[in-house]
Amino acid sequence: MDTEDPFPDTAFQGTVCAKRHVCSLSSADKDGTDLLPGSSNVIIGRARRHHWTYKPIKDTSLSNPKRFPRLTDPLPLPAFYQETWIKHSDHFDDYHTGPTREEMLVDNKHLGDIHAMYTMDPIATYIASSSWTRFADQGMRLLAGYAHMHYLREPWEVHAHILPCPRPAPHPSQYYHRLYKKRALDDFLRQTRSTAADFAGNPVLEFVDHVPSDIAFKGLKDMLQGYDGSNPGSTENLNLFVRGFTSDGKFVCLDLERDAVELPLNNILIDIDIDSIIWVTQTLHFKLGIDLAITPTVGKAPPLRKNNHIYVNILYPPTDQERFSGEREWVENITPLSIVPHTIFAKISDSSSPIYILICFPRMLHRHEARGTWEALIPFEVQRMFWNAVLLPALRQHAEPGTEAYMPATVDENLMRAGSKDQRKGAHNKAKTVNVQPHVLSKLQATMRDIIHDNPDLSLYGSFYFVLDAKNLKLQTRMSLHDIHEHSSPWSQLKLCHPSLDFDYMVNRQNGELHIDIAYSFTPNPDTTSTHLVGLWRLDILEDSFGAGGYTKGTLHNIATLSRYGALQAPMSRERSQLSHVVFRSAYNLQYEPIRSSDNLPYFAKDGDAYETNETYHAECNRRLSLFRGNAQNTTYGVRDEYRIGGQALLSFLQGWQDKTRQFLACNPILWIKSEHWFEYLAARVEVLQYLQIRLSMLQPPNYAILTSLICHLIREVSSTHTIPPQHVRASLAHLQAQTIINNYGTLFLHDLNLSAIPMLPAIQDHDDETVFRTLEISIAARTDIRKRRVQPVPNVASAGYPLGPSPAWADIANAISSHPEGFVQPYQFDLYIPHTTTAARLFILFTFHAWSMISNAWLINSSITCPSSLEDAMEYWTIGAARGSLARTAFEATNGGLTGPVHGHREPSFRDRAQIFFPPLGHTVPSGSQWWFLINASMGYIHEYHRILQTSSNAAAQDINDALHHIFSHLQLLPYAQAGSPTSHGFMWKQDKDCVRLVINPRYYRMISIGASRCKRTSTRRVTLSKAGFLKRISSNDGHDVGNMQVISKFQQTLRQKAAKSANKKRSLGARNARNPPRPVTKSGTAAHANRAIQQNTPYEDHQSSVEFTNGNDEMDIGDEDLEQREAGWAMSSDCMDEDMYSG
Q: Which range, of 266-275, 630-639, 894-903, averages the lowest pLDDT?
């Protein structure tokens, strides 16, 4: 073990692999240009017909990160020991009745009269599959020691298996340097067919033993310094965070040790707590009363959703021969507790977290005949029969005198009593309970067994046992390491917090098996550290510690696809667990807490949502971004190490208390880095991948679905481990040799990704098949709709000045603009010499801010809308790059305004003339339901401000303002597809083409001279903007500008309410309008009711007015209050709210 290579060959492919990746990229790719279609110099050629082929997977293990070796041997097992179990009793269970193995075969449809009762036909011999045939007496039974996982003897060497110390790791910060140097030396010796001894003393090895020159080691801080937050979808960000290349073309090796913060052992707080307890018993016994469920509980999943590493021994049914002869083999099967059919029996409410008591029915244990999975969720009708025939009769039999009126006889009566006005039939997912005292509970259990024993039709409920499951106890039992002594420990704290539980009875193994989770927490001391830190387990040291404790291989969780950092969970080997009473170990990082859900089930948008790039996908990405960039960066997160041990092992551990934490921490198992660096890196990784998915949705490569699943996998891996990804994702990771890349470069990079080529990622399958579409749940109709938005590449012609020629046909122009405008439109550059005035610049800035503030959160990638600070910034909002970076989906359209040549149809206004649409003349009016109405009539609207300035200005000054606005509009690269309103028509500012926002591109920037001849097709529209209430709230709550005039808002809200009331009153009948209204109640001054009424009367606006909409048929946006609190934005009202010198650009 001492001579084992700490860097196994399979974990690294050396510099040869790095060179292979370099050779696979062109010089343009290495420079980081010509990658994204957003670049102005990218022209993608038409894809040729390709013969699709399937790529076989050579080695599926390459899809998972390589495990580190375990160099430390565990404590040897004793040479001689005696297996001690509880004595068997023939009277413990009914071993002579029930079906045999042959009778329970799946293909045996003639089950006989024993199951005929469940079909309501006493003479039936053929039984159709149903819940009654599956949840029946399958012949399973229990032995007396069914609950015991450990020998009935004192636990052996508990301290040696808790916090086992690995070998110290020398210089963890030099890990990758030593890795690369060793691989370079091994490659040299392999090529020269020699050994290191042959070159002893030879200086040639000094030139061989070095780090390759094309590798750049970067930490999190270095990565963030190269991140452009203003343009997350830029080529530089894609190269750095996804492809893994620096600006000078070197490979990035992500080494978090460069960000390590040295933390002395005295500055680490060490706490011990008991997190949960699980007790398996045949007979319940408590000190106080419990809440017994008198109705069944049925949910989407059983109470124990996954394997908790607690097992029971189930006796399988005998064969026909054994039943006939009377002799049988007592064959037990070790069965996970979670697959035995079970349901909620009672609960205890001693603390904030209720303790649930489950009842398990091992005789029903079975697999589903079609799916082949274990069924632990008992159907409602099967539970109802148990409650009606067993539990409720036993409860009424032992009810206290005078309480029978509160004890319904059937489940239906209980559900009727538990019902409400809105839920007449009661709640099946929440049980109705009644308190039962300990002496009644003891008699109740005995009566339940007697009822089942006396009625053969109820045999499926026999052999039942109970499981007490208590979770989230860590805060109640948490103690500092220095405060633990003989009379003060987490165990004593647990007894004080839960007086109902008889722990002395539970620890006694004659009454069942008690399992306890005890955990160590390592957290930086906030009093001695000047910054917030995050702790990450070093997997190479943690793996060795698990090996030193004798744990099995378990499950590795590489956080954010990092090679050296993450979590590890593993059970103890069976024989060692039976001796030591240690069951399971789980070491994980608390940085997962910000994203952790209540049920501890990680969730991200489905791959189909990402395929469509819909609101659900963007909402999930933005939720992660807000969490990573929120309070998490100002919070300290440590690490935890949990152990599931038996009750006797816990007492032995506390009685012989040994403090091994200093020895364990001396091995450097934890990396400490700054919270702001860690969470900002996670946010940057998610954001770049989110923008990459948007780009792919525009390009629609032939394997778009596979690439989508791969990107979603990388986003999920940022916050949690996707343990079972889809088959096509595993195949893609294997083709990419993810294991090699992760172990060589610190994390998973897509080195060969090239968005300007087909295929974009050559290593993976180059097309989507029906299996992939079925996995993503994408219908044919959805695929057809997605392809309509596909970006059609512009033909790659020789002339860079005129990609379509000097006089292309109008159909080609429209197609180029709608599919890939960057290849046909000149890049935008701000003109410093645009003729404008300060007032015109201020009005245009106000127009830009108000226009973008109208868009709903569902359409914005970044929901934070801020007011531009200068004319240059405001005009930058109206560019193709800004539109792609701000709007989730866009539809670019061409216009013939200002172009020469034949035009079919009407001549559209030029961008200079479009200024009159957005800045209408004085006296312009529109209906109240128009998008323009509020901008014209509200004193804070930019059109109202524009009209006010015109009224107070001379004719010459007003003409100068209009001329300046016309010049500014003529230089814009794009504008919304807007229509001016009139006294009889609503008009609109923003319009939608199916699921894309329509934008018109200025012909000033087209790479052409004149138009040919063709027609322009029109498309339908849908809504895009916020409601008036939402619009008001966003603009009035901006902290950066002094605009919050709530009295103005209240006045217009009152106007809206009055108009809505008048409109509603007109629809009422004459009798209803003239009906007498009762007088309002009079409240005395000084009372609470009077105060509440005063508050309500002074409220500026009310929530129920948020339903007011900007309506214009189906052409405009219907906007509610969605996510308004997430965006803080305000409007600048007066001319002096900004400095004049800020508009100079």
A: 894-903
Report DSSP state, residue 430: S
SS3 422: coil
Structure token digits, residue 1014: 């063709």
Omega cis (within 30) before 759: yes
3-class DSSP state of 812: helix
Say if CB 434 and CB 394 are below 8 A apart.
Answer: no
Instruction: Give the C-alpha separation, 743 to 499, whole Å.
Output: 51
Q: Which of 806, 1038, 1039, 844 is nearest to 942 (CA)?
A: 844
Q: Is 775 helix (H, G, I), strand (E, B) or coil?
A: helix
Contact 231, 881 (CB under 8 A): yes
- CA dist 795 and 1129 (Å) reads 43
Neighbours of 142 (CB within 10 A): 23
Closest CA to 1031 of 843, 854, 770, 852: 854
Give kind and range of the element (H or E) at residue 184. helix 175-192
Does 818 score more than 50 pLDDT? yes
Where are the alpha helices (H) located in 700-837, listed in sequence order?
Answer: 704-719, 727-736, 738-745, 770-776, 780-788, 810-819
E-assigned strand segments in 88-165: 141-142
φ/ψ (deg, to 5) at 650: -65, -45
**Mean pLDDT on 1100-1122:** 38
Name the residue among 1055, 1077, 1056, 1079 with its Cα closest to residue 1068.
1077
Residue 476 CB neighbours (<10 A): 18
Q: Kindly report the three-state secondary structure assignment for every residue of 661-719.
A: HHHHHCCCCEEEEEHHHHHHHHHHHHHHHHHHHHHHHHHCCCCHHHHHHHHHHHHHHHH
Question: SS3 of 1006, please?
Answer: strand
Query: Within 498-606, where are the H helices?
Result: 503-507, 539-548, 574-580
Q: Which among 667, 659, 760 has a CA at the least distance from the CA of 707?
A: 760
CA distances from 665 to 163, 527, 538, 545, 718 (A): 10, 20, 12, 11, 27
Q: What is the pLDDT of residues 209-257, one digit of tens each?
A: 566 778 889 999 999 999 988 888 888 999 999 999 999 999 999 999 9
Q: Provide the pLDDT for residue 1059.
A: 77
Closest Cα partner for 669 from 689, 640, 632? 640
| Beta strand pairing call for 465-470 and 268-281 | antiparallel
CB 778 within 8 A of CB 981: no
Residue 221, helix vs strand vs coil = helix
Q: How far apart are CA 442 and CA 387, in angstroms?
A: 17
- Strands 996-1001 and 890-893 turn out to be parallel
Q: Is 387 in contact with 411 (CB distance < 8 Å)?
A: yes
- Contact of 790 with 743, CB cutoff 8 Å: no
CA 929/CA 984 separation, integer angstroms: 11
Q: Round to whole Å and give the CA distance between 190 and 181.
A: 14
User: Above pLDDT 90, what percent of the chain?
Assistant: 41
Between these two residues, 1048 and 68, which has the higher pLDDT value? 68
**What is the 3-state composition of the chain as percent helix, strand, coil, each rounded to the nearest 5?**
40, 15, 45
Q: Are the beta carbons of 252 and 218 closer than 8 angstroms?
A: yes
Residue 758, Cα to own-chain centre: how many angstroms? 31
Question: What is the full DSSP assignment across 1029-1077?
Answer: HHHHHHHHT-TTSS---HHHHHHHHHHHHHHHHHHHHHTS-HHHHTSPP
Amino acid making up residue 1014: S
Cα dihedral: 121, 127, 128, 129 (round 10): 120
Return the closest-CA partner of residue 537 out of 497, 586, 504: 586
**pLDDT tens digits, residue range 1049-1083?**
666 767 777 777 777 777 676 666 677 666 766 55
The one-character DSSP state at 346 is E
Q: Let me know how long the chain is.
A: 1145
